[in-house]
């Protein structure tokens, strides 16, 4: 058995870093008035960092009396000091570091190919520095936007913005974001904001970015044709991502029509045809973005799946694009198992009623999500019932359906099973809920799926039980 003494090893290497006189590398870090020199050992740097291994083996490094002279003006002394301590000792303490230094450490560890450090710092920012990241989301995105390895943190920032885009768009930072970030935001299908507001802030961003306009020339009444052409050039690539079909006729007349000259002719003609004939545009990239649906407060599914569920309610195709003329559903959380308790009585006490309702279930030991929609709610109390085969049944509907998603963002492999009208499709009070003879049934912490009675289409193709990890129920109104 091998004995390991890492503690003393780390301590001794720390002494080498701080006190050794046999260094052979001088690294100058920083720029302007924030410059500092660090002394190090090439053999240790090369062993710990693929970046230094490559750099020290090339002909472009400078030597002075056999001393390697290296310069890193893009790193700050605070960040590089932390990196050197990590390289020599494997130790890292971020508790007293500023959010800006931690972000700089992430960018530096990516450049220096310190994979272990990079992964740790990225997770640290997401888990331990949420407040700072959210308050400085523009700085974070600008710093790491082109770093391929930062997808996790980048996605976290974009999701944060998507949940409350108005706060970001109304900030000074929005007016200076680069084109790539703006393009990605406009392409997202889960922006929780009215489309006309997106349009308003896109115009403001375009004015700020266009030479000859900006704060000194933001009054449209004073613009000439040259100003409009310049703004059109600035916004040309972004116009197709505006969901004009989600803008009301009144807002289109007041806020879009005045900028007719900056909208490509083919797009504008299709928008007008939509407002006159309800013909969906072809020249515009249509996304499943929906304001009311993206406000779903679910811990089980992502907002984009709500659009699919509402298309099922309206008996539309999965990929149908909802417009301003479609029902504007509102969805309100009335029950969450982790808060109210996962059991029959808790579900019935919170969900009893005759209002259209949706239930979502996350099961244990699987990424699968199940759910059901009842157009008449989960009415399990009162006198309106029948007794059949010893069971007390309360309500039935030909609009009910049950469904499954492979995971919380599944838009490709989801399945829906609609009720077979001639079968028993009632909600029964001997369980939390029961869609048609146990096709989808909750009994306390257990979810049962069994369509052997053919109450629903046999599309889920599942006959088993699961333990419930989380369950939510929502009322739906239009």
From TrEMBL:
Membrane-crossing residue ranges in chain numbering: none
Domain TLDc as annotated: residue spans: 299-477
Residues covered by the BTB domain: 23-96
SUPFAM superfamilies assigned to the protein according to its UniProt record, in alphabetical order: POZ domain (SSF54695)
Stored InterPro entries: BACK, BTB-POZ/Galectin-3-binding, BTB/POZ_dom, SKP1/BTB/POZ_sf, TLDc_dom
Recorded coiled-coil stretches: none
Domain of life from the UniProt record: Eukaryota
CDD domains: BTB_POZ_ZBTB_KLHL-like (cd18186)
Protein name (database record): BTB domain-containing protein
């Amino acid at each position: 058995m091998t004995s390991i003494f890492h503690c003393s090893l780390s301590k001794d290497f720390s002494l080498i870093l701080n006190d050794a006189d046999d260094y052979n590398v001088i690294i100058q870090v920083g720029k302007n008035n924030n410059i500092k020199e660090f002394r190090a050992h090439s053999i240790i740097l090369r062993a710990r960092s693929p970046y230094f291994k490559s750099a020290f083996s090339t002909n472009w490094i400078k030597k002075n009396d056999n001393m390697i002279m290296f310069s890193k003006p893009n790193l700050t002394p605070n960040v590089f000091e932390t990196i050197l301590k990590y390289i020599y000792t494997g130790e890292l303490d971020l508790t007293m570091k500023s959010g800006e230094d931690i972000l700089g450490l992430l960018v530096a560890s990516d450049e220096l190919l310190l994979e272990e450090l990079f992964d740790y710092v990225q997770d640290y920012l997401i888990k331990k520095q949420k407040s700072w990241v959210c308050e400085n989301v523009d700085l974070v995105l600008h710093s790491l936007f082109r770093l391929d390895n930062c997808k996790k943190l980048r996605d976290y920032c974009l999701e944060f913005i998507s949940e409350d885009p108005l706060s970001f768009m109304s900030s000074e930072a929005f007016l200076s974001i680069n084109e790539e970030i703006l393009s990605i935001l406009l392409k997202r299908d889960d922006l929780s904001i009215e489309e006309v507001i997106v349009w308003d802030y896109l115009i403001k961003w375009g004015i700020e970015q266009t030479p000859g306009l900006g704060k000194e020339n933001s009054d449209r009444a004073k613009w000439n044709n040259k100003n409009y052409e310049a703004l059109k050039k600035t916004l040309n690539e972004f116009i197709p991502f505006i969901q004009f079909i989600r803008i009301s006729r009144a807002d289109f007349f007041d806020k879009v029509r005045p900028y007719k000259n900056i909208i490509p002719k083919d797009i504008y003609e299709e928008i007008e045809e939509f407002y006159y004939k309800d013909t969906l545009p072809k020249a515009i990239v249509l996304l499943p973005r929906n304001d009311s649906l993206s406000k779903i407060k679910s811990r089980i599914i992502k907002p984009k799946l709500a659009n699919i569920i509402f298309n099922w309610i309206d008996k539309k195709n999965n990929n149908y694009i909802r417009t301003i003329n479609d029902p504007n559903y509102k969805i309100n959380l009335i029950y969450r198992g982790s808060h109210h308790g996962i059991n029959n009585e808790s579900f019935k006490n919170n969900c009893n009623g005759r209002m259209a309702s949706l239930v979502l279930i996350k099961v244990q030991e699987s990424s699968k999500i199940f759910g059901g929609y009842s157009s008449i709610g989960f009415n399990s109390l009162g006198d309106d019932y029948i007794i059949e085969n010893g069971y007390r049944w309360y309500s039935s509907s030909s609009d009910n359906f049950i469904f499954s998603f492979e995971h919380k963002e599944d838009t490709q492999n989801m399945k829906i099973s609609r009720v077979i009208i001639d079968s028993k499709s009632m909600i029964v009070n001997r369980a939390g809920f029961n869609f048609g003879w146990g096709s989808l049934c909750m009994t306390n912490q257990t979810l049962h799926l069994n369509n052997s009675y053919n109450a629903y289409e046999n599309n889920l193709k599942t006959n088993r039980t699961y333990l419930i990890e989380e369950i939510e129920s929502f009322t739906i109104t239009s």
